Amino acid sequence: MSDQKIVIGLLGITHPHASARVRALREIDGVEVIAAADTDSRLQYFTDKYDVEPREIDDVLNDDRINAIMVHSKSKDMVPHAKRALEAGKSVVVEKPGGGTVADLEELLALKEAADPQRIVQVGYNVRLSESVQRLKELLDAGLIGEVVSVQARGAAKVGEHITEHLNQPADMGGVLWILGCHMLDALVEVFGAPESVNARVHKTAKLSDDTSREDSASALLYYPDFSVSFSFDGHDDLEWFESSRLTVYGTKGMIEAGILPQTLRVYLNESRQGWPQGWTEWTQSYFTPPFARTESNKFSELPELENISNFRTEMQGWVNSIRTGSRNVAPVEDALTVARIVSACYESDNNQGISVNI
Prior knowledge:
Layout: E1 6-11, H1 17-25, E2 31-37, H2 43-50, E3 53-55, H3 57-61, E4 68-71, H4 75-87, E5 91-95, H5 102-114, E6 121-124, H6 131-141, E7 148-158, H7 176-179, H8 182-192, E8 197-203, E9 217-223, E10 228-237, E11 246-251, E12 254-259, E13 264-269, E14 279-284, H9 310-325, H10 333-351, E15 357-358
Helix pairs in contact: 1-9, 4-5, 5-10, 6-8, 8-10
């Protein structure tokens, strides 16, 4: 039903994406966010700030009014929360990366496949939904730059985040590459699908880290049947979040570069085609976009709360549409599992001096 009432509860509130999704959902007609549960002492602060009722987990799951759940817990608790939500007959969006390990994502996929098909299970990836990435995909599918020859991808995390507890959860299979590098890897999966194999080196810079933190940078080669992707990532970017992140695709008839924040698209063609002129065509979203993160204190997460929620609007509208009409899942578990396998392959490759690891 295109006008179905969607009533939402949260399990977990300590991820900074929680408030972004609450704000995005409240812009959609016929959607309410009414309750949140967490064992964390900061629950009351969150519920007061975002006008939702603080509850116990069982109270949220047993509320028949609530037909959808958002999971924003620690990684190790994501799949158990999703399992209980699905058993209670509710659709779910699980914060990326969807769990702490590949096994978690495999379990999440099994839960989704066993659930009622009307229950939507979406993972919280939304960089893939930015207009620049989606336009890049459309132009590649249309053959604008001919055959893809090679791809360069860049991802980065804000300086200092790699040493936070959020990025070094003991049950997680990795650190900043897993928790934040997954954003741009997921964008690659959205555009190109799963690679066949990965070679990677993952690094920890001792003078920029501490004993409790994991990796802070990585380089990987992702091999597809007809081209390769070189991916670089580090956790020491002093620019605005995603400002230096981009995908650049080189083809036999030109190139396309997509930037994430601000959203940009640069197209070069060796001759005019499909209504595009020869040479460069560039589009840039206003440089005066809201900063990605807020400067005010965030008392429910150790990471900055988010200000720019443009991609969250697209993501949440997609989730609501899928629940109401069965439309395409904009961030399916299958893709999140592929991202998990790529990251796991990076760690395995690095542990073996950069050998090739099949996906």
